Amino acid sequence: MQIVLEKDVVVGDVVKVLQNGGLVIYPTETLYGAGVDATNEKAVKKLNLFKKRPAGKPYSIAVTDIGMARKFAVINSSAVKMYKTFLPGPVTIISNGRHILAKGVESERGTLGVRIPDYKLIIKIINNFNKPITATSANASYKKSPYNISDIFDNLSDKQKTLIDYVIDGGELPHREPSTVVDTTYEDISILRQGNVKLVKGNKVLSVSPDNTEDIAKNILQKYETYFGNRAIIFALKGDMGVGKTIFTKGLAKTLGITQTVTSPTFNLINSYSVNSPVKKLTHIDVWRIRSVDELWDINLVKEISDKSIVSIEWADKISDVIRKYHEEAIIIWVKIRFGKKENDRIISWGVSK
Amino acid sequence: MTQKIHKTGPIILSVDTSCDETSVSVTSGLTVLSNIVWSQSNTHAKFGGVVPNEARREHERKIDWVLKRALFYAKIQGNDLDAVSVTVGPGLAIALGVGINFAKELAGNYSKPLIAVNHLEGHLLSPLARAKNFQFPISNFQFKNKREETFSYQPPTSNNQPLTFPAFGIVVSGGNTLLVLIEKIGKYKILAQTIDDALGESLDKSARLLGLGYPGGAILEIFARKGNSKKYPLPLPMLGRENEGFYSYSGIKTAFSRMVNKLLTGCEQLDKQQIYDLAASYQHTAFEHFIRVTRKTISATIPIYNIQNTTYLFVGGGVAANADFRRRIRMMCKQLDFTPLFPYTKKLYGDNAAMIGAAAYFKYLKKDFIDPKKIDRIPDLKIGNAVRV
């Protein structure tokens, strides 16, 4: 095994390793990835051993551009839009595969995840290699996300280490989330995993004051009035500290006729307010202080959903996987609030995830 | 063995598990015989925040150990107890449940009455808790318990004056920012409270914006000492509206976040002095706002309630452990001609069970016990009604 600093990497050397069925650890704009020739069955088997991955779990591939992607996947019109908007970048787009890659790369239903890393060196390597490589995180399944080389090595057995042929050491990567995975094989674009890029089918509005933000919250809530008392409505709020997530929730509370002061639930994590209408209560949750998703939130959300509550969750991006599980039982409205140009300007975008 | 017990009042074992800390204490009257606090901040530091489930597991794992130590240091056995008290709220529901179940079981095992205590009242009355070696002078404040034993309690004033009511009280912690009127012990009116973030939360969040970790309020205090509080002026919240009975910390948080981000454009990270100055500026503004609203509200309340005698200000909660905060409170009290009452030891500022014991003592005197079948957690428990002055 060779470990080479990124600046010292000779592209030809890496290509040779790949051609010989070798396993390369490489940096990307999200995590460290594990790459093998995606057309080489033996190499993919080796990757399975390295990842300790149960058979049947597919791998995404990394390509240089949409042209290369078309050789291996059927890119439909909604996929084209996605490629144009988000690639290269931290998004994996799932299309139907052409079934010409090594066994185990495509999923059992024949779909293929494609990604174009926003990382010049990697694009250069794939370009010279002229074949797609696997794009999977360089950790064994269920182990820590790798942001530096020791994250990977600390969690590997000696046997796993022997499977690695070449390591491109790009140092400590910025701690970004794994890529967002978007499935374009159905009519509707569905989000499987929410990463750094949030997708909202919906609207974008400008708020110029806190009062304005409260009104916008009111307008959005009123659009879903027909569901009051029949279905839980979850407002999954995302935005930097101080951007106005609590203000937005205050707007929801006012709309529901709550006269109590809505204060930040940061310390207690949950504040509930009873409501005198088809909706019985507003539950205000703040997961800022939480770092790991655990079953507690499952339990409480299940209760809120069966109570048909209106739930506002601040820092929802931290538990987006948990929230997304309830997309059938509840209406989930993702709201993203960003700072605008002027001091009180806020850009509020929102949409329902399916 | 009973003769060895330092008995200055009913012996109460108290349990507090309202959030991060697991605490058990033994008090005799207002005297703290033991006050064991197991903090989970080490566990949480690893995660950068409270993990609720982890919190419950930690409470469950530690509580027996904490109890044993509390009894050991107090030189008390279960049978010596007169009552068991426990925090029922406000707090993290899942954590409160652990303490309540534990206390219920203890009270049942020893057949002792159970007392439900409001965590906020604990903070508020924490200045009344006394150290073991404190000599009780003869007092006109005397109480009789159900066995007709006479107990007295003396206010913690240096000049041996008895406490007078009404008094004022503030509770400043991670989850609360309150100014209350204490008509008498057990009867409170909320004069001012936060409309968004709590003061402690605001300090923790500003520390996080500076990259100082969690919980950052205590680190912010240390850094602020080295900084210039005038270097980065921040807008004072509710300026000119200090008489409305509200504290507000969300606007200053937003302004601070913008300021930090602006300083970060064009450079990779803040230098040390910048962090010191920013910490000092934030803390200054946050405290200044608190003092302004508190002073104004108190001044408006005095004539309404015709308060004339010596007036005491009870001060409790984790933020009051900040030396600069206490300095400002003392200055304010000087202007108002008030006497501030602070807890006698640092341990009583943060969450702890001895303050619950102090509050439980007064309930014990009134025989305010709760049926163990009926006790339940109240995560959003209030301390009194809000009044507008």
UniProtKB/TrEMBL annotation, chain A:
<dbReference type="GO" id="GO:0005737">
    <property type="term" value="C:cytoplasm"/>
</dbReference>
<keyword id="KW-0819">tRNA processing</keyword>
<dbReference type="InterPro" id="IPR006070">
    <property type="entry name" value="Sua5-like_dom"/>
</dbReference>
<dbReference type="Pfam" id="PF02367">
    <property type="entry name" value="TsaE"/>
</dbReference>
<keyword id="KW-0963">Cytoplasm</keyword>
<dbReference type="GO" id="GO:0000049">
    <property type="term" value="F:tRNA binding"/>
</dbReference>
<dbReference type="GO" id="GO:0006450">
    <property type="term" value="P:regulation of translational fidelity"/>
</dbReference>
<keyword id="KW-0548">Nucleotidyltransferase</keyword>
<dbReference type="InterPro" id="IPR003442">
    <property type="entry name" value="T6A_TsaE"/>
</dbReference>
<protein>
    <recommendedName>
        <fullName>L-threonylcarbamoyladenylate synthase</fullName>
        <ecNumber>2.7.7.87</ecNumber>
    </recommendedName>
</protein>
<dbReference type="Pfam" id="PF01300">
    <property type="entry name" value="Sua5_yciO_yrdC"/>
</dbReference>
<feature type="domain" description="YrdC-like">
    <location>
        <begin position="8"/>
        <end position="197"/>
    </location>
</feature>
<keyword id="KW-0067">ATP-binding</keyword>
<dbReference type="GO" id="GO:0061710">
    <property type="term" value="F:L-threonylcarbamoyladenylate synthase"/>
</dbReference>
<dbReference type="GO" id="GO:0002949">
    <property type="term" value="P:tRNA threonylcarbamoyladenosine modification"/>
</dbReference>
<dbReference type="GO" id="GO:0003725">
    <property type="term" value="F:double-stranded RNA binding"/>
</dbReference>
<dbReference type="GO" id="GO:0005524">
    <property type="term" value="F:ATP binding"/>
</dbReference>
<keyword id="KW-0808">Transferase</keyword>
<keyword id="KW-0547">Nucleotide-binding</keyword>
<dbReference type="InterPro" id="IPR027417">
    <property type="entry name" value="P-loop_NTPase"/>
</dbReference>
<dbReference type="InterPro" id="IPR017945">
    <property type="entry name" value="DHBP_synth_RibB-like_a/b_dom"/>
</dbReference>
<dbReference type="InterPro" id="IPR050156">
    <property type="entry name" value="TC-AMP_synthase_SUA5"/>
</dbReference>
Automatic annotation (TrEMBL), chain B:
<feature type="binding site">
    <location>
        <position position="351"/>
    </location>
    <ligand>
        <name>Fe cation</name>
    </ligand>
</feature>
<dbReference type="InterPro" id="IPR017861">
    <property type="entry name" value="KAE1/TsaD"/>
</dbReference>
<keyword id="KW-0963">Cytoplasm</keyword>
<dbReference type="GO" id="GO:0002949">
    <property type="term" value="P:tRNA threonylcarbamoyladenosine modification"/>
</dbReference>
<feature type="binding site">
    <location>
        <position position="204"/>
    </location>
    <ligand>
        <name>substrate</name>
    </ligand>
</feature>
<dbReference type="GO" id="GO:0061711">
    <property type="term" value="F:tRNA N(6)-L-threonylcarbamoyladenine synthase activity"/>
</dbReference>
<feature type="binding site">
    <location>
        <position position="119"/>
    </location>
    <ligand>
        <name>Fe cation</name>
    </ligand>
</feature>
<comment type="function">
    <text>Required for the formation of a threonylcarbamoyl group on adenosine at position 37 (t(6)A37) in tRNAs that read codons beginning with adenine. Is involved in the transfer of the threonylcarbamoyl moiety of threonylcarbamoyl-AMP (TC-AMP) to the N6 group of A37, together with TsaE and TsaB. TsaD likely plays a direct catalytic role in this reaction.</text>
</comment>
<dbReference type="InterPro" id="IPR022450">
    <property type="entry name" value="TsaD"/>
</dbReference>
<feature type="binding site">
    <location>
        <position position="322"/>
    </location>
    <ligand>
        <name>substrate</name>
    </ligand>
</feature>
<dbReference type="GO" id="GO:0005737">
    <property type="term" value="C:cytoplasm"/>
</dbReference>
<feature type="binding site">
    <location>
        <position position="217"/>
    </location>
    <ligand>
        <name>substrate</name>
    </ligand>
</feature>
<comment type="similarity">
    <text>Belongs to the KAE1 / TsaD family.</text>
</comment>
<protein>
    <recommendedName>
        <fullName>tRNA N6-adenosine threonylcarbamoyltransferase</fullName>
        <ecNumber>2.3.1.234</ecNumber>
    </recommendedName>
</protein>
<keyword id="KW-0012">Acyltransferase</keyword>
<feature type="binding site">
    <location>
        <position position="123"/>
    </location>
    <ligand>
        <name>Fe cation</name>
    </ligand>
</feature>
<keyword id="KW-0808">Transferase</keyword>
<feature type="domain" description="Gcp-like">
    <location>
        <begin position="160"/>
        <end position="357"/>
    </location>
</feature>
<keyword id="KW-0479">Metal-binding</keyword>
<feature type="binding site">
    <location>
        <begin position="171"/>
        <end position="175"/>
    </location>
    <ligand>
        <name>substrate</name>
    </ligand>
</feature>
<feature type="binding site">
    <location>
        <position position="221"/>
    </location>
    <ligand>
        <name>substrate</name>
    </ligand>
</feature>
<dbReference type="InterPro" id="IPR000905">
    <property type="entry name" value="Gcp-like_dom"/>
</dbReference>
